[in-house]
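Shall we go through a protein fold together, starting from nothing but its sequence? Please make up or recall a protein chain and show it to me in full. Go ahead whenever you are ready, and we will take it from there.
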Amino acid sequence: MDRIWLGLGSNLGNSQQILREAWEVLGNEANVSLIVLSSPYVSDPVGMESDNRFLNAAGIIETDLDPFTLLSLLQKVEKGFGRNKKTGSAGYQDRLLDLDILYFGELVSSTKELQIPHPQIAHRLFVLAPLDEIDPLKKDPFTQKTVTDMHSELIRKIKTGEIDSQEIERKSWKVKE
């Protein structure tokens, strides 16, 4: 079984419910074992224009699926939640559900369909904050930096103005009654 680190995101619909249900759907797959899911984090869109804020989380699973079969499964789950990737659209789009493979064990791979590790990890606070919560000592196979080190470095770059601000707020999975 390989250990996989996933990113989960949504900025349309009831994002908290969508992310929780998607996590449960993954856990119901015969070849997938759920290990841990981070807290949800609310963030402004990064790398795209939208009036909708995102809810993001990170999770760890174990599976014996190969990376491309796992990617296919994640895309099937996204589609099951109504995700419709617009053909011909450039850049990022609003979405009901986005599931990304961040790390696949220690695998380093780059194909047209799939890059592992995910190429934007070190530049996205909405990825590093939840990853730091669930696995701070995970090392990036390219840089050998821990998630905590990458997270701290990104915060420093934001504070010094080297890169644009990325607003983020940790929330709870508890639903208000």
